[in-house]
Amino acid sequence: xxxxxxxxxxxxxxxxxxxxxxxxxxxxxxxxxxxxxxxxxxxxxxxxxxxxxxxxxxxxxxxxxxxxxxxxxxxxxxxxxxxxxxxxxxxxxxxxxxxxxxxxxxxxxxxxxxxxxxxxxxxxxxxxxxxxxxxxxxxxxxxxxxxxxxxxxxxxxxxxxxxxx
Length: 165
Hints:
The protein has 7 helices and 6 strands, in the order βααβααβααβαββ. It is an alpha/beta fold and about 160 residues long. A 6-stranded mixed sheet has the order 3-2-1-4-5-6. The mean pLDDT is about 95.
């Protein structure tokens, strides 16, 4: 199984999604793809941030999100007990605190979303699919991922192991 990170799901909404991404999805098939409740949270957070300045755009993106959730492709994985325990371990790892701590003046809130996505991927033995490889490589140094793929370049940064390969 492959877990699509938020940047990958968001790219699918663009007028012209990344061609390599679309080709990869076509080759793999939707049955092998999932995303997480964390991605749903991140997209919803973005919608609500935009709503303050552009409610029309926010409504459009919200309808798009509800549309993909209604279709069930990709499936949405929860933060189950095993993933929550892994996430707790990640939160306790000092080098990973940068995913959580931010200054009040920071432009973007830190939600720990990448940690949650990685925890779900580890608990499901699923490959993380992202263009945001640097953050997941930082997590990989402390918590081995079942695989890490950049579908935009086709590069496997962590070779797949187990059911995702």
